[in-house]
Amino acid sequence: MIKVLIVDDEPKLREGLRSLIPWEEHGYTVVATAANGLQALEKYHTHHPELMVVDIRMPGMDGLELIGELRKEDSACHVLILSGHADFEYAKQAITYRIDGYLLKPVDEEEMIQYLNQVREAILQENRFSRWNEEEPARTRETLLRSLLQPGNTEGDPADEGNDPAKYAAALGLPPGSYEIVLIELMEPLQADEERTLRIRAAVEHYFGSDEDRIFFTLSPYLGLLLGTPLQDSASREALYKELAGLIRQDGYDFRAAAGGAVPQPEAAAASADQARELLREAFFLRKEQLLSADSVQVYSGAAETEYAEGPDAENRLQLAVETGSSSAIEPLVMQICRELITAGSDELRIKETFVRILSTVLARLEPSYPVIRAYAAEKSPPISELYHSRNLSDLQSQATAFLNEIAGLVSGGGRGNEVKKIMELIQRRYNENLKLETLSELFNYNSAYLGKMFKNTTGEYFNTYVDKVRIEKAKQFLAQGMKVYEVAEKVGYMNPDYFNAKFRKYVGISPSAYRKNN
């Protein structure tokens, strides 16, 4: 039963109200009555009623003064006002004291019961919320914070009737004003130790635990801070980032963090948290070593692009650069591939898969021709795992560039000046592809006419003639093995069998069919 205290200076009205209303039928019991405010305050402390029915006009301490004293004590007691004065000023003042209803004398029984039903529902909800907190000690300030930040994720919460963020903000005692959420993603080393991870989390919690303006919380999988003073500028973001780095960066542990932007009131904190989550999801593409915010820029924003002439795509040029030992071309091409993938809307996984494929393809092409690379790959496998675990695009770029440069160094023997030999070896490996002297001259950083002249002086043949002759020699081998003419044409890089037939006649003197028949 809900305990009721009736306060009125008129004895007949007090007793009449006590007997008029069927209190127990509606879940109430009258525990006491009082003739004025002072007496009521004393009985309030004795009986602790949950509802007081209070007359406005009383000698000594009147009803409004009584309610004012109760609110000073932070009492959550519900109050229904009784008055013979339908005075608007009384009503206004009573409302500021958070009263539950205002009834004019003589009391209408039906109206009174309607108020009692409303108050009973409110008290029952408060009781459920109270039991919920008592039964689960873990539902502390941090739990309320999580509910505030995830208003749509409170299923099963008995206190979540209405799912009102204002309720959680009030329960947390958050005053009106601007707030901002910072989410922190802890990044563990490959060989992480659970105990050490917990120790670092505890260190962050302890550091901010006594800071009332920066409330620590966890919001899986993140750590978080509710800032009572939003980060105003890049200097304040940098200062917080340094604090976090000092706490987290040890024994291979790292982090990234994002500030979701200021919101005008605590009830809107979920919007700031959503923005911080979105920034962390995009962190792979944003510049490192900063507290991410709406002002953060992408890794390649403003980076100068290397212009290449029309020809094979960047991925193919990168493979050619490695195979010809053209180290200076590798990093610009890696950047170009990254930029093209981003422009095409590729996500983080797609970019990682692309570079894993490039590295694997390069090794597969070069290992048969270069024993040194086979030995290198056996000793030091490609950084596949490192690429997949890259937390930032710039890290992935550095890892891929470093590995490809090492391979290119093994191919070139560490020096410049044997470009023609590299080209000849490349033609032997990739005779069936559309190799162009212009593309190779870009990789070697030569004028194409000059490189063509160097090639002619060294081999005695023009570049295209040399390629044709290598293709025809390979074709002769395949024809001798019994392959059909159209199959051989395609295998050595001629998509048109008639064109292949003409080339073969030019360099061999007979048709491919005749050569196949005679061999």
Automatic annotation (TrEMBL):
Record localization: Cytoplasm
Residue ranges annotated for the Response regulatory domain, each copy included: 3-120
GO molecular function: DNA-binding transcription factor activity; sequence-specific DNA binding
GO CC terms of this entry: cytoplasm
Matches recorded under SUPFAM superfamilies: CheY-like, Homeodomain-like
Gene Ontology BP annotations: phosphorelay signal transduction system
Residues that bear 4-aspartylphosphate: D55
HTH araC/xylS-type domain ranges (all copies): 421-518
UniProt keywords, alphabetically: Cytoplasm, DNA-binding, Phosphoprotein, Transcription, Transcription regulation, Two-component regulatory system
UniProt xrefs under InterPro entries: CdaR_GGDEF, CheY-like_superfamily, Homeodomain-like_sf, HptR, HTH_AraC, HTH_AraC-typ_CS, Sig_transdc_resp-reg_receiver, Tscrpt_reg_AraC-type_HTH
Pfam families for this protein: GGDEF_2 (PF17853), HTH_18 (PF12833), Response_reg (PF00072)
Keyword Cell wall biogenesis/degradation in record: no
PANTHER family: HISTIDINE KINASE-RELATED, TRANSCRIPTIONAL REGULATORY PROTEIN HPTR
Name this protein carries in UniProt: DNA-binding response regulator
Species of origin: Paenibacillus donghaensis
